[in-house]
Amino acid sequence: MDTTDIEKTIFDLKIPESFLKIAEKVFQKERITPEEGLFLFQKADIGYLGMLAEIVRREKCGNDVYYIRNFHIEPTNICVNKCRFCSYSHHYSSRSWELTVDEMLNIVREQDDTVREVHITGAVHPDRDIYYYGELLVKIRKIRPDIHIKALSAVELEFLIKKSRLSHEQGLKYLKSCGLDSIPGGGAEIFDTAIRKKICESKASSSEWLAIHETAHKLNISSNATMLYGHIEQYEHRINHLLLLRELQDRTGGFNAFIPLKFKNRNNELSYINEASVLEDMRNYAVSRIFLDNFPHLKGYWPMIGKPIAQLSLSFGVDDLDGTIQDSTRIYSLAGSEEQNPAITVSEMIALIQQVKRDPVERDSYYNQITV
Ligand code: V47
Ligand code: SF4
To answer: Which CATH class is domain 66-371?
Structure first.
């Protein structure tokens, strides 16, 4: 086949008119509607979808793929909630544990100077309050004045703030004064009320999750957003979730990244559900990238999906692979994730990105490039 033959074959593929209409909007940088998003989820060919998501990603980030030197602290797995998809809390894990403040500070001391971000999240412990975490942040800040503290999901925050009888604004202002820089995206799960009731009834509601992030953004505390997919939700629920995030981002501009989290089925009450296929994961990344036109970044969380799939996700709209992690998280390994001891060196991360012909960019927590 010469080039003209190939061009002719591609031309002859007969791309459906309904897809072309959406593609035309994306080319023109016009926002797609929830109905169009639903069409992409339900009917679009995965190849075309990847191409469209890549147009959006390239426009935002060019050839760059971001990563950060980070580590996690998971303070405890003792939880007041009982989410049915969770394999991490003491309800499902073989043992209960809680780190002391000294143990957590020692984890911080062990990190070398090049590590830029600590991600603190865990279960919702019944006995801990906002002042416990406030004091922890102050002590971390003392040891590492330069480190970015991304801490406490909206679900943890909602519990702590309510317990202390403060408003969202008062609680967040207090934590900010203690050193909180940003909040992670956990706890969003799926915003649809009926599905949320079935999988995680007792935790913060969707409107509470959204309200906490909105207040945080107004206080100049940026955040991430997640979506747990591939369990009992339908495509309609995913689109509704994305729409609520897109609307909030229009109001505040405070989200840095969107992180789809694939439901993993080991050791939890939803183990009877088959996990989503790799193609479904790619479809989800691509539609998220196209629909969330106001989110600067889409994160492929490699400890969850594994390194090869993380490389593949870079062709479906993902531009950020999170970080080096240093084997400091157990939330996913307990649920059966691809990486049982997640850690990657900077040179391995660079090689992973370069192998798929992209440019690795070390970033800080606000996606500024680190130049050494
Ligand atoms: O909210 C729990 C998820 C989340 C399972 O902000 C599960 O940069 C899949 O939010 N299968 C917590 N997922 C982690 C989180 C996160 C992760 C990485 C980066 C960031 C960020 C945030 O983990 C929970 C829940 O949605 N989760 N159990 C499971 N079986
Ligand atoms: Fe608790 Fe979080 Fe597990 Fe729900 S997902 S049970 S809030 S640790």
So the answer is: alpha beta
